[in-house]
Design brief:
The chain has a 13-stranded antiparallel beta sheet. It starts with a helix and ends in a 15-residue tail after the last strand. With about 250 residues, it is mainly beta. Helices cover about 15% and strands about 45% of the residues. The protein is globular, with a radius of gyration of 18 Å. It has helices at about 1-10, 30-40, 115-130; strands at about 55-60, 65-75, 80-85, 95, 100-105, 110-115, 140-150, 155-160, 170-175, 185-190, 195-210, 210-220, 225-235.
Length: about 250
């Protein structure tokens, strides 16, 4: 869900990973075993595999600038998504992917169609937001780093996840704690209006919502500015008409 928000911010992220003090420790976890544990930790009963739609509501805040953003993200699986971001005093921004097309609309200012790499990124992010898919169904290749890394209070495995070649970006890094097998940090490259930028996202306060475990708090650090996201609700199988994902006829 945070991927839509990052595409709106269009500012460079300064991110860092702190290694375990002293020599990093090796582990003997197998990649397949780790991926299985991750899936069971988030969705033990396979609830998300039955979902046809999903509506997520959240709030974003930039404390330093005292700015808040309300976001509603709608998904109609497998290939449709729509994100609506509302900021007080600014035009509402809407981003849509309908499987074949993708665009960004700034209300009152017009629509910007996406093509080429932009379209490929939009499709990828839509697919990546599907909680029914496991990492091997999203990434082109996944490698498990042989060492453990310290992320805050957690000792974490690091997965190196290669994106589809057409996106032409470096692999993402996903850090998974070695006790609960939940993602605690991800470092990835996002395509924004300013080009491809590195983004670091910390996930915490996991809570069960409609059968799956969700990171209620998502923190992004950008050039020393903290952006805090709070998931307010996760509602599966809401009725979402296809018209929500159609390009306006007059565009």
């Amino acid at each position: 869900m945070s991927k839509f928000l990052i595409s709106l911010l269009t500012i460079i992220c300064c991110c860092s990973v702190i290694l375990k003090a002293g020599d990093p420790l090796k582990h003997n976890m197998a990649k397949k075993d780790l991926l299985d544990k991750m899936e069971k930790a988030v969705d033990p009963k396979g609830a998300a595999k039955k979902w046809k739609t999903l509506v997520v509501k959240m709030q974003m805040q930039v404390p330093m600038q005292q700015q808040k953003m309300s976001v509603t993200a709608m998904y109609k699986f497998p290939d449709k998504s729509k994100g609506i971001a509302t900021i007080p005093g600014a035009p509402t921004t809407i981003e849509v992917v309908n499987g074949k097309q993708a665009w960004k609309e700034t209300v009152g200012l017009g629509i910007q169609m996406k093509s080429g790499v932009q379209l490929a990124f939009a499709r990828f992010e839509c697919r990546k937001s599907n909680p029914a898919l496991n990492p091997t169904e999203i990434y082109a290749k996944i490698t498990l780093d042989p060492y453990l890394y310290k992320i805050g209070e957690y000792s974490c495995y690091k997965l190196i996840c290669a994106l589809p070649a057409e996106l032409k970006v470096e692999p993402s890094q996903v850090f998974v704690d070695n006790k609960d097998f939940l993602i605690r940090r991800s470092i990835e490259n996002q395509l924004t209006d300013m080009g491809v930028i590195p983004v670091s996202i910390d996930s915490s306060d996991y809570k069960v919502m409609n059968g799956i475990k969700v990171a209620v708090t998502v923190k992004t650090s950008i050039m020393g500015i903290g952006i805090v996201g709070k998931i307010l609700s996760v509602e599966p199988d809401e009725k979402i008409p296809d018209s929500e994902f159609q390009l306006p006829k007059d565009k």
